[in-house]
Amino acid sequence: MTLTKFGITHLFSLACLGLVSATAYAEKADSNKETVIEAGYGESDGKTSVRRLSKGVALVRGTLNVKAENAVVTEAPNGDQFVVLTGGSNRKVTFRQKRDGGPDLWVDGEAERAEYNQSTEIVKFFSKAKVRYLEGSKVTQEQAGEYLSYDSKNEVFVGTNSTSGQFVEGSGSLKIILQPKPEKQAN
Fold first, then answer.
1. pTM of the predicted model, to two decimals?
2. What's the rounded Cα separation, in Å, for the pair 9 and 81?
């Protein structure tokens, strides 16, 4: 089942990306592209404004590519959407998108579950979450934890060691890896 502009055209352009560095934005041109969603099965309930997609969900919008096993989109009366993506058994929600700022800059990541709230512009990744910034195939920055979130309105990143979003003593740690910047060559 292919769904074009299935009511979530703004879903991922502001979400899933830029998790730590406010200077590492998703490719701006993607926000002007059509969104194509494919799923094995989809149903929409007009009374409750809930759409369910399952059996392998793939979303493509410009350079953004998101894959999940299931997605549930709930639309509020004002039109804002809340989306929950899940990976299913032994699978994760994955995403990859080109970043502005250079010809081969990317961000990608994975988690067992992802949530996006359009009204707050907050994206959350739950359980075995990982986000990487790449220059070509070289990882320049990486975050990993049980919970990662990014508030794009306020440019605030939060990472913790538990899926509740709160620090839990003895439950491991958040890990952030920053690669050294290459030295500039003198002319």
1. 0.76
2. 10
